[in-house]
Amino acid sequence: MSTEPPVSTAPTAPTRRTELLGIAAGLFAEKGFKNTTVRDIAEASGILSGSLYHHFDSKESMVDEILSTFQEELFAAYDAVLGSDVDARTKIDRAVRLSFEAIDQHPHEVAIFQNDAGYLGGFERFGYLAERNAQSRGVWVALLTEGVESGALRDDLDIELTYRFIRDTVWVAVKWYRPGGKHSHVEIADQYLTILLDGISTERP
Amino acid sequence: MSTEPPVSTAPTAPTRRTELLGIAAGLFAEKGFKNTTVRDIAEASGILSGSLYHHFDSKESMVDEILSTFQEELFAAYDAVLGSDVDARTKIDRAVRLSFEAIDQHPHEVAIFQNDAGYLGGFERFGYLAERNAQSRGVWVALLTEGVESGALRDDLDIELTYRFIRDTVWVAVKWYRPGGKHSHVEIADQYLTILLDGISTERP
DNA sequence: GTCTATATGGAGATAGAC
DNA sequence: GTCTATCTCCATATAGAC
Prior knowledge:
Chains A, B: Keywords: DNA-binding, Repressor, Transcription, Transcription regulation. Chains A, B: InterPro entries: Homeodomain-like_sf (IPR009057), HTH-type_TetR-like_transc_reg (IPR050109), HTH_TetR (IPR001647), KstR2_TetR_C (IPR041490), Tet_transcr_reg_TetR-rel_C_sf (IPR036271). Chains A, B: Pfam families: TetR_C_24, TetR_N. The structure is a homodimer. Chain A has nine helices and no strands. Chain A is mainly α. Chain A has a domain at about 60-200: Tetracycline Repressor, domain 2. In chain A, helix 1 (about 15-30) packs across helix 6 (about 105-120), helix 5 crosses helix 6 (about 105-120) and helix 7 (about 125-150) crosses helix 8. At the A-B interface, helix 6, helix 8 and helix 9 of A face helix 6, helix 8 and helix 9 of B. The first copy, chain A, binds a DNA duplex through helix 3.
């Protein structure tokens, strides 16, 4: 993670810095980190590329701040679900809904993570991305294990594979989900949870 | 699609051309198209970058030939499933297995398509990628619709969302599947089909 | 906080010798 | 079929004026 930006206690007044980060996030999400040039970001911001370096050290610093800020928020939410006092099935329901909600509210950040984490993870500076992945796996494996042990979930599940299927389906949705589109993020979560929990067949074997 | 390479009728003797394409495919899959330089490909092939242009017009030509060749094969297989004389549930089973098998046998090609189709699709030359996507959707929507109408699948399914969930889960597996790893592609398909058809819960509502 | 001007490096691609 | 040599463009980033 990078050096901290000025700490904001209040509900984030849109400073020039955050404004520029928002523009950069949109471009990174749309075209990919590598395919977005500093000049692209500057042009979209109505300034010249040199001026961006008054606000940020480098292009990498920008994506770093975008991702680390978002992940801090996301994982706080996961921890709340994991520690909540409800049954396993409800926790899984909440974790799934939380993820689709994150896609709805932070589509750029999720898209950047999905598309560029592999590339960025190759740099030491972004080592925290792999740590966050491991943390996410830990949450899901805990929830699924709890589900099997409590009898809510089938005991013939391969926890590791099940985790991967859920993670993949949920997060890749950022590639096609459009806020304000035909399906709300709540409807998508409803449909996915129905399928995940009970399957698409009319009858069980 | 690009101009055709020399047509091979026999079981593809590994020409220098296909050898180079294989090396390029591995690098594109691993690092992404944009992040792989022509010099990377040349070095991995034991030659210098200029020499590559004796075999190919451009870096784009290489990825074009890699993708179009693969997709031709893949969609022939889908068409065979779609036209086969079995019930809808069996067709879905076969289509899922076919996809995981494609990941097993052509991991580079699938990875390139997953990671770079968005970027490449922006060029006219790669317009066929979008067409193939539409074709894939057509196959799945047909299978799911047939399943609902025959009574094999629940009639409260949103076909469009269900298609997207299946497509995403199946193809993103290329990011973590490793041939010869802990789970075979058949085991992965088994587990996914179990969950997809019957869900992860012990009991239905 | 932005602009002007520019340094520096790396990318794709080409021409012709061997 | 490969190498040598090189062109050209575009990328990130910097220094200092306004």
